[in-house]
Amino acid sequence: MKVAVGCDHGGFVLKEKIIETLNKLGAEVVDFGTNSSESVDYPVFAEKVAHAVADKVCDLGVLLCGTGIGMSIVANKVKGIRAAVLSDVFSAKATRQHNDSNILCLGGRVVTPEDAAKLLTIWYTAEFEGGRHQKRVDMISDIENRNL
Ligand code: RB5
């Protein structure tokens, strides 16, 4: 799996642990920055990662900011993206199984690097269940086609 990773200054604290965890999981990481804790604008990084996933340059994405929320708002503006902000293990599994989420968003001011690694591992290893959930994901695509 090829995974796009992006962050702003608020998520930079998590990036090293996220990349280390992805490497352990056998993923190929494409790092879209930022590369320091200097203040930057999260929409820039979210759009780059969202396009890498939507254009199928990467299979999945991980976006990190202070809360994960700004990144998710931006990423979900790109057609084909289903970005989920996570801070609990139940949702980490469920959003892959049910929503087929393709971008994970985490907050550097919300979760510790250790919890981020745990959430990422659960999210990355869970599988989409299809069936009735496929119908609902198709409905999301229809809504995108009508509105984006
Ligand atoms: C940056 O201060 C902060 O607004 C950003 O990291 C993020 O939390 C936005 O949602």
Strand content: 15-25%
Which ligands occur here? D-ribose
Task: Count helical runs.
Answer: 6
Terminal residue distance: 28 Å
The domain tally reads: 1
Averaged pLDDT, please? Answer: 98
Superfamily at the CATH H level? Answer: Sugar-phosphate isomerase, RpiB/LacA/LacB
Total beta strand runs:
5
Inertia-based shape? globular
Which features does this protein show?
148 residues, 6 helices, binds D-ribose, globular, Ribose 5-phosphate Isomerase B, Chain: A, 48% helix, alpha/beta
Characterise this structure.
The chain is α/β, with parallel strands linked by helices. The protein has one domain: Ribose 5-phosphate Isomerase B, Chain: A (3-Layer(aba) Sandwich), CATH 3.40.1400.10. The protein has a five-stranded parallel beta sheet with strand order 2-1-3-5-4, sandwiched between helices. The radius of gyration is 14 Å and the shape is globular. 41% of the residues are buried. The model has no long low-confidence stretch (mean pLDDT 98). The structure holds D-ribose (RB5). The site of D-ribose has 8 residues, from α3.
Give a quick summary of the entry.
The protein has 148 residues and is of the alpha/beta class.
Secondary structure: elements and pairs:
Layout lengths: L1 E6 L4 H13 L3 E4 L10 H13 L5 E6 L3 H7 L7 E3 L3 H9 L5 E5 L5 H13 L6 H16 L1
Parallel strand pairs: 1-2, 1-3, 3-5, 4-5
Helix pairs in contact: 1-5, 2-3, 4-5
The chain binds D-ribose (RB5).
